[in-house]
């Protein structure tokens, strides 16, 4: 119960941070212009061709079709091969919750995308970044599952670090290719962490119950 309260308290903190940022994005966007511009310039530079090719390739990992395929493949492996049924449900629920929340919030804030050169074509509003939220959400969910299921050691730490690194790279790529402000990225991260903190205690409780009832390993 205490751990549940801690996670829900953390979720409230990150949700509040998201709401505050969203309020500024919606009603006082000019106050963020300097920060966004400076970070964009630092990340994009003069758009060297080699870097552009790298970042446009990385950003594909957060495309809806790709992240959905990754989620479905992992959930299938967890459910049928590893017999980790609740973990599979947790992963699918994480993707669904993030998708619904991120899409709905885009229409709440209706932030136009940056008026700079884009390296890819895209549509829709800018805040929060769907790619950022989705990759961090799925990476975070898998990190949790790995932490619970893999033995403690260097292999587990490396895998968890790689997952978070990939999510961060996708987030940075959205700024580099010009389709998101840095504050969109922060918003995406805050949203993902909020949802994970909200969902984790319920998932962990159900996992304990199912193992106690011998519904899964």
UniProtKB/TrEMBL annotation:
Identify the InterPro entries for this entry. Answer: PAP2/HPO, PAP2/HPO_sf
| Domain Phosphatidic acid phosphatase type 2/haloperoxidase residues, every copy | 88-200
Q: Name one Pfam family in it.
A: PAP2
Has the keyword Transmembrane been applied to this entry?
yes
Q: What SMART domains does the database record attribute to this sequence? A: acidPPc
Lineage: superkingdom: Bacteria
Q: Which residues form a coiled coil?
A: none
User: What Gene3D superfamilies does its record include?
Assistant: Phosphatidic acid phosphatase type 2/haloperoxidase (1.20.144.10)
Cell membrane found in the keyword field? no
The entry's keywords: Membrane, Transmembrane, Transmembrane helix
Give TM segment ranges: 12-29, 54-81, 88-109, 129-146, 158-179, 185-203
- SUPFAM superfamilies named among the record's database cross-references: Acid phosphatase/Vanadium-dependent haloperoxidase
What is the name attached to this protein's record?
Answer: Phosphatase PAP2 family protein
Organism of origin: Streptococcus suis
